């Protein structure tokens, strides 16, 4: 699982690097070639080491260079089947989707508004989140299934919600990183939504409560399925349940931080990164709920109540948004 995560981080680094889309496309192609033939990593990483990776931290750049990256590919080469085939398949899909999103391939349509690249509509938003995170949901589920040997009913139930689980985490990050992405000339929130508020968020002029709630409610609906995913996991899969809760609870807390400061949403003060103290509390809560599905359900219900109450205004009551 750790190897799969780090390979996904390599793809994230390529996408996050502030290089032209054509440059990124070449790196995605080289990544896919290393999946097919890991021994290419020595040559490819040596080449990458001479490339510029603007926008990445020093630690992120190490993963793209021989010293930090080559051990990862050596471990990948030694992973037994069928786990290695799962990693190869889903990271290949992820790479193709990320590369395709740059050139409107894979069915993803984009628009430009005042120099900002936008996904065209909600379907494109969902497809993008599938490529970069729903695929990770599939990959993690398959690897967990190989390890824990879930029965057929559990495996099918997990596969039914694993995409939404990944999409929900990605959409949480899209809300959190809206300003950061905008500075790179990108908005992953779709043109279809942004035109409803005359593109005000693109100039960090805020947005109406109804529109902000629409964005948050869309994320929340995905996180409901993510909670169902965790609830489906047998108590015997303690390690994977803990890891899943440690993805879900910080996403919940990020949304809570956003709605409690809703007047700052999509403005120049849009900043919703949870504190280390909150992250530590998520860890403690995850441990306490690891074998308590009732507590997980109550946590989810409390979150939804806080979100709905935060947006209850006369305007909202006249134009309710169903989640």
Describe this protein's structure.
- With 323 residues, this protein is mainly α.
- It is 69% helix and 3% strand.
- The protein has two domains: 1-106, no CATH class; 108-323, Farnesyl Diphosphate Synthase.
- The protein has helices at residues 2-16, 21-36, 41-48, 58-63, 66-78, 83-102, 122-148, 152-176, 178-183, 191-194, 209-232, 238-260, 276-289, 293-310, 314-318, and strands at residues 110-113, 116-119, 186-187.
- The chain has a three-stranded mixed sheet with strand order 1-2-3.
- Residues 319-323 have low confidence and may be disordered.
CATH fold-type name of the largest domain: Farnesyl Diphosphate Synthase
Mean pLDDT score, rounded?
A: 92
| CATH superfamily placement of the largest domain | Farnesyl Diphosphate Synthase
Oligomeric state of shown chains: single chain
Relative strand content = under 5%
> Structural class per helix/strand content?
mainly alpha
- Helix proportion range: 55-70%
Count of helix runs: 15
| Overall 3D shape | globular
Summarize the helix and strand pattern as letters.
HHHHHHEEHHHEHHHHHH
Q: Total strand count, please?
A: 3
**Computed Rg:** 20 Å
The biggest sheet amounts to: 3 strands, mixed
Q: Cα distance, first to last residue?
A: 33 Å
How are strands sequenced across the largest beta sheet? 1-2-3
Give the uncertain stretches in residue-range form. 319-323
From the coordinates shown, what is the CATH architecture of the largest domain? Answer: Orthogonal Bundle
Q: Quick one: CATH class of the largest domain?
A: Mainly Alpha
Overall number of domains: 2
């Amino acid at each position: 699982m750790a190897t799969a995560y780090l390979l996904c981080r390599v793809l994230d680094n390529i996408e996050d690097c502030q290089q032209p889309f054509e440059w990124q496309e070449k790196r995605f192609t080289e990544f896919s070639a290393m999946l097919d033939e890991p021994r290419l990593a020595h040559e490819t990483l040596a080449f990458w080491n001479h490339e510029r990776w603007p926008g990445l931290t020093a630690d992120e750049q190490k993963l793209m260079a021989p010293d930090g990256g080559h051990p990862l590919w050596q471990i990948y080469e030694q992973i037994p089947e069928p786990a290695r085939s799962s990693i190869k398949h889903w990271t290949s899909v992820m790479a193709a989707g990320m590369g395709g999103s740059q050139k409107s391939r894979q069915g993803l349509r984009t628009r430009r508004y005042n120099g900002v690249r936008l996904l065209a509509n909600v379907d494109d938003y969902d497809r993008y989140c599938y490529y970069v995170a729903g695929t990770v949901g599939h990959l993690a589920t398959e690897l967990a299934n190989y390890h824990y040997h879930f029965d057929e009913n559990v495996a099918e139930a997990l596969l039914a919600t694993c995409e939404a689980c990944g999409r929900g985490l990605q959409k949480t990050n899209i809300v959190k990183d809206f300003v950061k992405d905008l500075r790179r000339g990108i908005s992953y929130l779709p043109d279809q939504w942004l035109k409803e508020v005359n593109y005000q968020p693109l100039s960090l002029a805020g947005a109406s409560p109804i529109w902000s709630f629409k964005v948050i409610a869309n994320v929340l609906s995905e996180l409901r399925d993510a909670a169902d995913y965790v609830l489906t996991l047998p108590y015997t899969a303690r390690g994977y349940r803990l890891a899943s809760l440690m993805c879900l609870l910080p996403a919940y807390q990020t949304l809570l931080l956003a709605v409690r400061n809703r007047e700052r949403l999509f403005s120049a003060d849009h900043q919703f990164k949870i504190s280390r103290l909150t992250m530590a509390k998520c860890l403690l809560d995850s441990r306490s709920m690891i074998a308590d599905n009732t507590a997980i359900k109550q946590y989810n219900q409390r979150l939804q109540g806080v979100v709905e109450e935060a947006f209850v205004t006369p305007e909202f009551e006249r134009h309710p948004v169903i989640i």
